[in-house]
């Protein structure tokens, strides 16, 4: 299958590419891939574990290899011989110039940027360029995944975002202040009939106009914001308190990370959507809102080694108060990259099974799953398994 990555030169994207190519060469095992669990064994009949990559980025690097090397030199997040063994494959992957419309101040931290809007293009011309790039790569087995830097909250406008007609009017009238890069990528993908997944908290295909487009075109899409680390633990652990009828009084989550993602998120407007995405899970899971602190702070020397401190204050029998603490010390790209491959495979499977619109059964992979309030990891996993088994049987 083919995967078009928005943010192709990021650490999550390049780690997914390295992993996919290393798997193809039998250099690594399948640890970390959900889609390779025995309960999904039939998936390989529909979507083999073999990937070609393309994508958009706004950093003018020559190839995905140069990006992967840059990330590797900062993080050394896997053994160097693996990178060397896939170097030629990554040197063949060159990202097309993307748009960074309304992506906020944070992206200036990424260094030298080149964007389509620098060329003075209108919204219509930007969309045409994105479509042309995707079309030149895509076949019937291609999906698009947004793994670009997190955008600020959108300037939501019912007139332009509430319906497909309004969205297309926004493009025709060149109302740039209401568009964001992730919406334009999602629009182009869905218009071309390409399934789309949003690994970020950016709006992407989640505005009503683009949900309408996906239905109209009969295309599956899913998101938002990959659930990979602290939120994965939180949504796996919190149900325990609920099952035992223990009352959570307060939950503090304090995340520190470095790297490009950390730099971009150190800007308040870029961070806002991520904090909301992380923060809402407790209320959705418990049915009440305990006192909650969710912080994300930039900590340069950690690079991609995200560390999260969680403190939970809870009440048990006889009103007695107790505390629980955990520390998550994960390598962000290593927990995220296999999910990119999993999401791509399940989404193509959905397309092959004729599914269109939001695939809420893929909520297992996301912090803010679209069109469902089920964020309990255990429930989400059962839903994914059942959905897959029923479709695979059919
Ligand atoms: N565990 C995880 O790593 C994890 C979990 C959930 C979500 N995410 C999200 O995934 C995204 C990628 O994370 P990362 O660590 O790879 O970040 P990164 O900074 O390494 O990579 C982002 C890439 O996107 C590019 N980019 C930025 N804006 C763009 C645009 N408008 N169009 C095209 N390219 C653009 C950048 O140049 C960069 O190469 C972030 O939004 C992050 O919040 C990551």
Please name the fourth-level CATH homologous superfamily of the largest domain.
NAD(P)-binding Rossmann-like Domain
The CATH architecture of the largest domain can be given as: 3-Layer(aba) Sandwich
Q: Classify the secondary structure makeup into a structural class.
A: alpha/beta
How many distinct folded domains? 2
Low-confidence stretches: none
Strand order of the largest sheet: 3-2-1-4-5-6-11
| Cα separation of the termini | 22 Å
So what's the CATH class of the largest domain? Answer: Alpha Beta
Characterization of the model:
The chain has 394 residues and is of the alpha/beta class. The chain has 2 domains: 2-226 and 334-393, NAD(P)-binding Rossmann-like Domain (Rossmann fold), CATH 3.40.50.720; 230-330, 2-Layer Sandwich (Dihydrodipicolinate Reductase, domain 2), CATH 3.30.360. It is 43% helix and 17% strand. The chain has a 7-stranded parallel beta sheet, sandwiched between helices. The protein has a 4-stranded mixed beta sheet with strand order 8-7-9-10. α5 (123-137) crosses α8 (181-191). The protein is globular, with a radius of gyration of 20 Å. The mean pLDDT is 95. It binds nicotinamide-adenine-dinucleotide (NAD). Nicotinamide-adenine-dinucleotide (NAD) binds at residues 6-7, 9-12, 56-59, 98-100, 103, 107, 110, 147-150, 181, 199-200, 225-226, 228-229, 260-261, 332-333, 335-336.
Question: Which tags fit this structure?
Answer:
394 residues; alpha/beta; Rossmann fold; Dihydrodipicolinate Reductase, domain 2; 2 domains; seven-stranded parallel β-sheet; four-stranded mixed β-sheet; 43% helix; binds nicotinamide-adenine-dinucleotide
